[in-house]
Amino acid sequence: MLLRRSAYKPPPRVYNSLKFVSPDCKDFRGLVRSRAPLNLARSRVDMARLKTIEISSLNIVTQPHSPDRYIDLLNAAYRNGLVGKVRGDQKAMIGSLREVEDIQGTRALTGYIFLYTDIDFNSDWLNTQKNDSADEEDLEELNIPEHLKPGLKKVRFLFIAKTHRLYFITKDESGERVGPSIIGRAIHSILNHDIFKKMKEDFGTVEVTVTPTKEALSKVLGIPDISKIHISVIRPNPDDDDGAEARFLARMEHENVGRTDIILSRQRGEPGIKPSEETQVIAELASENGFVKAYGYNAQGKRVEEATINHPFRRPLWLSETTRSPISTMIEYVKGTLRR
Q1: Band of the pLDDT at 77, cuts 50, 70, 90?
Q2: Does 238 lie in the same domain as 97?
Q3: 326 pLDDT higher than 50
Q4: Confidence band (pLDDT; 50, 70, 90) for 17?
Q5: Are residues 187 and 304 in the same domain?
Q6: Nearest to 46 by CA among 319, 316, 315, 317
Q7: Other C-beta atoms lying within 10 Å of the C-beta of residue 254
């Protein structure tokens, strides 16, 4: 009796593909396959354990400009325990700081920004049981040491001296979020602390811009009927620019100008503003060093306004709980940007 050969075909082998990638890489070209077959049940478990973080960045500018000067600035802020005001009773400080050694071609620092609530013990207190102001007898029960602060939020960051960019995590591995504008205000307040004016280490005015998305400027200048454009340019560092931007920077330096504000208003009775090529170049510079804001009307005739500061850069990154920490994930991403 002849036995027929079975038509059964084994399923294709599945390989282990768990390695750091950016989730916006749609076809997962960043995945690297190993030669070991992967158990499908285990694969589902491992994939479930993959999480994302989200990062944003700040452009920090001080004059005169040098990479070491930025390192000195952050070290001085940390060493002196400088506290900056964020909003209301929320304060911020650099809670930890250390140098990163393995990023080639630049000095780098990493650490935590601490956000917390600074309670004014001399303000009025509420007694929720009485639904009235707390009296002296109620307040006698308070025993909170001055050095303890509630509402702590720890935000990891990475500063690259060469590009004077501060990258920070806006959504951590547990899903906790913080707004880019909050960190921008915190860093600006800390680095412009009055104590620097009393020290030998006077770093002058430190400008901080929240990095916008690449599409932010086109959204601002893409309003169908623009009635007003406000372009605010903070004098950038000289190694950041070329061409028309370099000429504009040279003019600012020659005139001893730290900030230039350009206001374009539509002539009454005329159609919407059409920015020239030169205006667009200056606006591009301002989007990374200052801001661009436009006012006008959309296609439906409704009044609208757009600003680059309202469209912060946000980059999601995959990390594996078993192999990657959030800070090492951020370091690997920044290394990639420096190689481009």
Answers
A1: very high
A2: no
A3: yes
A4: very low
A5: no
A6: 319
A7: 8
Give the list of residues 6+ apart from residue 272 with CB closer than 8 angstroms, or none: 223, 224, 225, 226, 227, 266, 296, 297
> What span, in angstroms and rounded, lies between the C-alpha atoms of 309 and 197?
29
Residue type, 106: T
3-state DSSP call for residue 188? helix
Same domain for 334 and 246? no
* Residues pairing with 127 in the sheet: 132
Residue pLDDT, tens place only, 91-114: 999 999 999 998 999 999 999 999
Domain annotation covers residue 24: no
My answer on whether 278 and 234 are in the same domain is: yes
Tell me how long the chain is.
Answer: 340
Residues 57 and 168: beta-carbon distance below 8 Å: yes
* Euclidean distance between CA atoms 82 and 269, whole angstroms: 53
Q: Are residues 277 and 239 in the same domain?
A: yes
Helix H or strand E segment including 200:
none
Cα-flanking dihedrals φ and ψ of residue 137, to 5°? -65, -40
* C-alpha angle 218-220-223 in degrees, rounded to nearest 5: 95
pLDDT digits (tens, 9 = 90+) for 263-296: 999 998 888 999 999 999 999 999 999 999 999 9
Closest alpha carbon to 287 in 333, 229, 335: 229
Domain range for 264 is 216-310
Using alpha carbons, select from 260, 312, 258 the residue that is nearest to residue 283.
260
Q: Based on the domain organization, do 186 and 97 belong to the same domain? A: yes
User: At 252, which helix (H) or strand (E)?
Assistant: helix 244-254
Regarding whether 164 and 195 lie in a shared domain, the answer is: yes
User: Peptide bond preceding 64: is omega within 30 degrees of 0, i.e. cis?
Assistant: yes
pLDDT(18) > 60: no
320 shares a domain with 172: yes
Which two three-digit tokens encode residue 99?
Answer: 């140098």
In a domain, 158, yes or no: yes
Global confidence as pTM: 0.82
